[in-house]
Amino acid sequence: MKLSFKELSLEPASFNGVYSFEDGDFKVGVTGYQADFVPTDAGLYVDIRFDYEFTAPCDRCLEPAKGFGSGRSGIQLSLQPEEVKDETELGDDDMGIVYIEGDEINLEELVRQEVIYDLPVRMVCGDDCKGLCPQCGINLNISKCKCDIITDPRWTVLKDIKKD
Ligand SMILES: [Zn+2]
Ligand SMILES: [Zn+2]
Fold first, then answer.
1. What span, in angstroms and rounded, lies between the C-alpha atoms of 55 and 128?
2. Ligand 1 centre distance from Cα of residue 59 (Å)
3. What is the SS3 assignment for 104?
């Protein structure tokens, strides 16, 4: 959804929608967002609320795991000043201000950035996930292997030291 910064700077407006996107291993469905734009002295303020669900591979067993979340964030939008257009130190997230180039606001991109920020860093299919066997790679949630019978010789040495 493309919006005009100049038009939104004149009077408050609200938008909502549903869409999905992929980010790395994450498949994300934004099940609903609401964006309320309010004109300010500095330009434009937007209050974004969002709900989402996602699937991503479990960090332990690599099987797809599902999750969901919701969040809310306020972003100050300003038009990118002409004279600093090429200066790299003026990042998008400096001081919580997002600079808009030209007049075009890509609302779904704004929401996408907020959802990505809200996604979990680590993804586990369940607290009781047993993961993969480090030796044979079998998914220990589905079946057992006999690897745990083999004793790592380094541990045997440690046990011997303890006995003394
Ligand atoms: Zn798992
Ligand atoms: Zn194994």
1. 18
2. 7
3. strand
Q: Report how far ligand 1's centroid is from the alpha carbon of 138 (Å).
A: 12
CA distance 102 to 87: 16
pLDDT value at residue 162: 57
Q: Name the one residue in this structure whose structure tokens are 């969040």.
A: 71
| CA 135 to centroid of ligand 2, rounded, Å | 5
- Give the CA radius of gyration of the chain: 24
| Domain segments of the chain as ranges | 2-128, 130-164
Band of pLDDT at residue 42, cut at 50, 70 and 90: confident
On average, the pLDDT of the chain sits at 87
**What is the Å distance from ligand 2's center to 60 Cα?**
14
- In terms of C-beta density within 10 A (0-12 exposed, 13-18 middle, 19 or more buried), how is residue 71 classed? middle
Tell me, in angstroms, the distance from the centre of ligand 2 to residue 141's CA.
12
* pLDDT more than 90, % of the chain: 70
Q: Considering the chain, what percentage of its residues have pLDDT values greater than 70?
A: 81
| pLDDT of 145 strictly over 60 | yes
